[in-house]
Each structure stands twice: as C-alpha cells, then as structure tokens.
Amino acid sequence: MTELGHIAWPPAPIRTGRLVLRESEARDRAAFIELFASPEVGTYIGGPRPRDELERAVPEVPGRRPGFFVVDLDGAMIGMVTLDRRDAERPGHVRPDAGEVDLGYMFLPEAWGCGYAAEACAAALGWFAGALPGEPVVLCTQSANDRAMRLAAKLGFTEVERFEEYGAEQWFGVWTSVTPPG
Ligand SMILES: CC(C)(COP(=O)(O)OP(=O)(O)OC[C@H]1O[C@@H](n2cnc3c(N)ncnc32)[C@H](O)[C@@H]1OP(=O)(O)O)[C@@H](O)C(=O)NCCC(=O)NCCS
Which InterPro entries does the entry link to (predicted)? Predict the structure, then answer.
C-alpha cells in the first residue's frame, strides 16, 4: 500500500445527513478493537483477530493516515471508510501503471442495515472526486459478501472482472466520477 498522493490531509470533517467523516482520535481506539475482533465483521475479510493481540498492537491513535476516515454517529465511531492505493502486485487493475485507489469499508455490526455505510462511502467518494477529479476508484470484495456486493452496486461500481484470491472468488469493480459521453 502506498500513500494516497498529493492531497491535502486531513480535510475538514465531512458532514452527511446523519454522519461525520473525520480523522481518527484516541477516543476511537476501543471501537477499532471491536471492529477487528468481531467475528461478524471478519467473516469475508480473513476472520477476527484475537482481542488480546489487538490490545497490544493497536496504537494509541489508530488509523492516522491519509485516506482513512472514521465514521462518527452522534460522537461515537461506528465504522471506517478507507481510500488507499492498491498494491501493484495484487490482481485487478484498471490503469496501465496500476496503483489504483481502492475503497474499503468496515462497520460495527450494530450499525448494519441502516444505510450508514452507503451514506459514508458516497461522501468519501464525493470528497475524492473533488480532490482528484476523474481518477477511478476500485473496489474488491469476496463475491459471497452479499452486503458488500449490494453496497458496491448502490454506490455505482461496475464489474471489471472476477478472480481467485485468498482462496475465494473476488469481485473487482470500478467507479468514476466522470460520466462517459453519450
Ligand atoms: C459491508 C458493510 C459495510 C455493509 O453494511 P450495510 O449496513 O449492509 O450497508 P448499507 O449502508 O448499504 O445499508 C444497507 C441496508 O440499510 C437499510 N437501510 C435502513 N435505513 C436506511 C436508510 N435510511 N438509507 C439507506 N438504507 C437504509 C437498507 O434497506 C439495507 O438493508 P438490507 O441490507 O436489509 O437490504 C457491512 O456489512 C460490514 O461492515 N461488513 C464487514 C466488513 C466487510 O466485509 N467489508 C467489505 C470488505 S470489501
């Protein structure tokens, strides 16, 4: 994973109808640990991580990097949305020079089924389109991950290809802020 690029970071907090997307803070640490320790969250992304290991490894202020948004509902973290450059060695590309920006999302199970992930991802994509106009964003998820697949479609991602990775079929899609002519 490489840096996002020449984008001023952090932006001012992004407000949506119900949420705020902001840089992480020390008070988010417990929610981070919940996210990564949750068996439900980990189902399609490599499984949960042991809580004691997380307690040791997670820094005091986790997730402080360009492209990493904490999603805040009424003052508490409910999930995260990330925009990172994709490793060139991984399968799935839409640019000849690789290094595509990849959208990721993880929410606490109690926040699922309310449209929060869709609201937060749409806001992050809107911010990104303003920062780097016309640059595509890609998304990769296990095709068995129904919720992530529905969310990708809702956000306007379209399928590029499917491939095997981590022992499962992956769906790889692309989104761009520029509407093709015609
Ligand atoms: C993937 C993930 C973020 C999707 O969360 P989600 O809550 O299902 O996604 P959305 O924000 O799109 O919410 C959609 C649901 O909210 C419902 N909803 C309720 N109120 C709503 C509102 N006001 N607006 C929009 N949708 C609303 C929709 O009907 C839909 O319900 P359904 O799933 O029963 O059809 C979540 O399952 C997750 O964190 N999974 C674990 C991590 C993971 O696998 N990440 C993907 C890695 S690639």
Answer: Acyl_CoA_acyltransferase, GNAT_dom, N-acetyltransferase
